[in-house]
Input
Amino acid sequence: MREEQTKPQDDFEEACKKSGIEIIEAEAEEEPQGVGGADYSPRTTAPSYTNPFYLKRGMGGYNPCILISGNSCLANCVGYAHGRSLEIMNKESDNRYPTCNAKDWLAVAKANGLSTGQSPRQGDVIVWESAGYGHVGVVEEVYDGGKILVSQSNYGGTRFFLTNHYPPYNIYGQTFIGFIHNPKFDGRWRKNDVGWWYEYGDGTYPVSKWELINGKWYHFDAKGYMQTGWLKDGGKWFYLNPDGDMATGWKKLKGKWYYLDSNGYMQIGWQKINNKWYYLNNKGEMQTGWLKDGGKRYYLGTDGAMVTGKVNVPCEFNEKGELI
Output
């Protein structure tokens, strides 16, 4: 039988400082934060002192992972991660989640049938291992390039804080070993006569939002159906492929070329792509041939790339003999 973490782990806050990672402290919320349904609310404030997900069961809470720090799991990384995972699922218990030392969480989660991996998803528990007791936190946001925002608590340290981490996620004295995926987001694709939607593990589904599924971005409408084609969101244009995943890079549609950056934003104007200059009009269409811009004339090859140096290019004249 594994023992609970009853003595301090390596000081994670000190490891962060030595690695140049900022500790972002946050005030406590006034009331318990409700989590459930189709929405995910990143936690960027400390839980209230009456939030049942972070209270010992014997004190009317839901958290079985508290043997230290009094009636509340804070400050205690394993108690916090357990409570936050339950909060995300909006469940009072889930026996698959570990309650042992932080560095054992990944192995115990796997043994209990929870999904794990090396790529982050919102709601994941991130696990670090060290010579001492390791550390766990919860992934609140996932950004481009694998950057993540992690919420956590530290035994003998700060009650609640946030840190940003970049791949490969190792820091001073702590080695990243994996993510435990929250089962709320272990979903499946479903289809009816109207279209496709994505069902979470708890039966809810994303509505009017972007969702990262198996490493690809999808957008769902106000009724929860997956969208395809052109989409304007936040003042930006995106293109969603016939399979629903967000397009990036060059895209040819109805004979016109468009360029969508790594965020999926359709580009306009001059763009430098792979060390070549291209011009995309206000509809996002790549231009070729002669172009007049800012009182100057440019020539764009058949591939759209701006021509430089001394070259012979075809010319076109109107019926008056004027160069077009």
Summary: The radius of gyration is 26 Å.
